[in-house]
Structures are given as structure tokens and as C-alpha cells.
Records
---
Amino acid sequence: MGEIFDIPEEFARPLKGPGARMRVLASDRAGNIALRLALIIPGLILLGVGAVDLFAVHNAHNRLQSVAEAGALAAAPALASGEDAARTRAAAFVADAMLEWRNAPGFEGAYEVVRQGSEPAIRIRLSGHRPSLLGNMLPPGGWNFSGEAAATSQGLVSTDKDQARS
């Protein structure tokens, strides 16, 4: 009976005993590659999406830091006109830069005048947030990142964050 339809002998004869069918299926190696790929491919796709997401967050963090640095440098000459003028100039510069950024993350900015040695400096702290590509699951709520820079009329100065790294 098994030779006519080219059916393996195990399937052609009746199976007896508990678990006999499972033993036959467990010993059958046909289709193993398809099963393995079905288990492996979703994990590889998830790793790929995670890598793309991390790359995008890293780029967004770098760009937010650049905006903070450029804003501090742009606002520093306004320190000669007063603290309010410098803060207003910094906020306007950052707002313009964020409008030019396609798909910019949500952000909050803090603009303050601090003393750097004997002269005033404008410090800009930007906090950014963007949702995760994985539906805000990893990390929960999305990604948070920040950029901080300070500048005097002489140029950029180190911030508390920079001093902590050294």
C-alpha cells in the first residue's frame, strides 16, 4: 500500500499505543528549514527595526545638541544688550532651527544667563522626545534625549555636562 503513493512506511501502517503519532512526527525531518525560518525571521526583523530606531535616536540627539550649540553662539552677542535680549534671541534661534528640521522631535527649551568666570554666558538646555518605532514599547513611552550648550561673547564654554564627562 505504501509503495503506490510513495507514502513512508510509518504513515502507511496503523499506529498503536499512546503517543505513537507524536513519535512518528518527531522523527520526521521534512520541513525543518521552514519551521526554523518561521521562528528566526521575526526575531531578525525585530533586531533590524531596533537598529534603525537606535540610529534615528542617535542622529536626533546629535542634531539637538548642534541646535543648542548654534543657538548659544547666535545669542551670545546679544548679552551686551541685556539678559532678556539674549534669552529672546536664543529662543527665537532654536524655534527657527526646529521649524527647519523635518520630522523634528517634540522639545522643551530652557534659556538662562549664567556667570562663566567674570562674564555672563547664555546657557541653552533642550530636552527632546520622539516615539519609538516599536510602538513606544521599547523604551516605554518613547525616547528622551537632551542637548546643552553655553556661550559667552568669546564663544562656546564648557557646561556642567561637559565637566562631568572629563
---
Amino acid sequence: MGVDVRQLSPKAQKQVYGKLLELQKNAVGATFDGGEGKVTSQKKVAQNGSKYGNKKVEVNGIQFDSKREARRYLDLKAMEMAGQIQNLQLQVRYELIPSQRIDGKVVERSCDYVADFTYYDKDGWYVVEDTKGMKTKDYIIKRKLMLYIHGIRVKEI
């Protein structure tokens, strides 16, 4: 049995949102499962080491490339439950350069950008977010192509 937070008064929504953030920050190794309203444990995913020092993390059955990305997901999920954002999506793919074919054979694969999160904010604006610890040259080029080709400015967290 659950309660739709969006049906609560704005004051109650703010209290719920604050409590969720408090839970996720204070509970060592614990996170909020926005789908069922339960606090569940974070499970580290085994990895062979990362070039940039990030650690893969699994939260609520979803694997994230870093702790920062997992924390941002929890923040956004709480915001969605409080009605501050809508239609939260993860790992949305945008084609930047299509694949190149010669005589029907692919000679160059397409170049894509995969956004960490997309959603609509409370004013109805479409937001594309990327949680970045290290801005690589590849990422910077793809960010510029997102603006040039799709007219979308990537929000970096």
C-alpha cells in the first residue's frame, strides 16, 4: 500500500521530500526506493578498476557508473515523487552522426551521446543532465554536438 505524494498538500510534499533526502544522506550505505517507498541497501558492483576512479553502484536494481550518478538519481526520483519534475528517464540515446555506408556496408558506426537523465521541470522545460566528475575531450565534443544538432544544452551536475 502506498501514497501518491502528488496528492498531498504542497507543505506535506515538501516534508516528504525533505525526509527522503535526509534518509538517503544519513543512512550509511542505504538509499530510498522511490517506487515502493522502502529504504534498501546499496550494493557495490564488482569492477576491475576505473580509469577515473569512479565505482559502479547498483540502486534499486539499476546499475550506475558512479556514486555521484546514483545519488543524483535518488535526488531526481524524490523530486519526481514530490511533483517538482516529471517523466524522469535514464540513459536516453541521441544520435549525433549517423552511421556511414559504402555499397551497403557500414564503414563507420554512428556517433551517439547517451544522457544520464532527462526530465521535464516544473515549468515544462525539457532537461538533459549528465553527472560528470571528469570532462573528457570526447564528452566536450559530444556536448557541443548536442547543442548544434539537437538544440539541447546539457546540464552538468
---
Amino acid sequence: MESCTNDTKILFWKRYLIYIRKNRISVNILLGFNVEVNFVFCGDCKELLNQLDNNSVQLFLTSPPYNKEGLRGKTSVWTNWKKSIDGIKYDVYEDNMKEDEFQQWQIELLNIMYDKLKDIGSVFYNHKVRRKDNSAVFPDFVFKTKFMLHQIIIWDRKTSADQNDNYLIPTTEYIFWLKKGNNPICNKNDCCFKTEVWSINPEKNNPHPAPFPKLLATELIKLGSNKGDLVIDPFGGSGTTAVAAIDTKRDYIIFEINRKYCDLTEKRIKNALLLSKSKLF
């Protein structure tokens, strides 16, 4: 069985390599799971993160699932489902793990990122206060990782689909700025925001149910990295991190488990590369 399983995996990666070569020109993947930069990998982020070299990444920028259903006790076996949560319609999206399992999963992923990060690197980890039994639940599991907390950036979305009459409309989310060493890169002068509260409207006209605003990704990348540095998004979604990396002349790697959003990311990358080339003339 083990041999059969490995053969199946190799066949999948070979087919996917052919697929991405047909659809992009800037993809570099070596079979055996060693990876190079500037590509989209459709697969499980934990497996893929483990293939990276230690101390090799300047910046991780990501927004994981929030597990709202799981927090409220509406759990199920890992499966694909279609549902609406707090006004957000998900397609293939896991948001219903048991809460203790979800937190342990996120802690493990963050600790892997810690090992892969350079000493001067950063992780910008987006999460929010969730609600259970009419009480606020802060994502304090972030503080159970190997990281030190450098700062918390407050993202003011200015709006929310949550219109519950029992509490004020929640319009903010957190960007946890996590660091490995004591002096991460901080290009404050390159960032258009000078305080820890950033007012940015949610992105519209994006088929992903909860897209990361491009302005938010762009300013975080400029803040925590330099041109030519490597930026990785383990929960790539619609590929906003890749587009922002191209615009700011950084290298990128995107991990995304949903084939639909891998394809969307590839299209957005193509457009970003064409736009980038056109600016040279």
C-alpha cells in the first residue's frame, strides 16, 4: 500500500507540473518536493511548508480560516461543504474543526513558519475576535507559539456583515506582527501607514468569499521585507499576496488547497506580470 500511495503522489505532482508549465512561464518546481520561488502550489500547506529550508524566508503573510463554526460547536469530519457563515458564502472551505484541534493546527503551522523564517524575518498573521455564546473570544493561541510579539496592527475594515443587535458592529481585525529575532526588518518609511491602526475597505469584485485587500498586503510586504526578498502565503486564497509581491518586486510562493483558487491566482499573476512589463515601456 505504501508503494501505491507514493506512486499516486508522484503521478499527481507530475501532472500538476505539466499543468502549471502550460499555464505559466515563471514556475520552478523540482520533483522530490524541493521548491524554488515564484509559483503557486495547490496542496496542503503543512506538507508544503515542511519542504522549505530552515532560515530561508523573510516574510510570511497570511489569513487562515477563522473556524467560526467549530468554535460554536458545529463541527464535522474534515470534508468539503458549501455554506454561509456570518454572511460570507464559502465554497470549498474548512471552517468547522473542533476548536482545540483548530488551535493546535494553527500553533503547529506557526511553529513551522518560525523554523523556516530568517532571524530578521516576520510573520504577519491575520485573525479576529470571534464570538461564542454572546461572548468575545480573542485568538490568544497565537501567544502559545515560539514567536515573540512585535506589534499588533489593527485593520479597520469600516464595515461588517455581522449586524447582531446584542453588540456593536465588529469592524476590526488583527494583524499579529510576529518575530523570530529581536530586530526584524521594519521599513516604516516605505509604508504609507504610520500608526498601528490601518483603515482599509474590504476588497470587492473578487470571487473569493473573504479576499485580502491588495493595499493591506502591499503595505505589509513593504513594511517587513526588501526588494528581492521571499514572501510566502500558506493560505493563498485568490492570490493577493502574489500580486502584491510582484508589484513590490519581491519573490513569492503561494500555497492553496482549493484548485479553484489556485487557478484564479494563476490568472491574477499573469495579469500582474503583464501590467508590470507594460510599465517598463
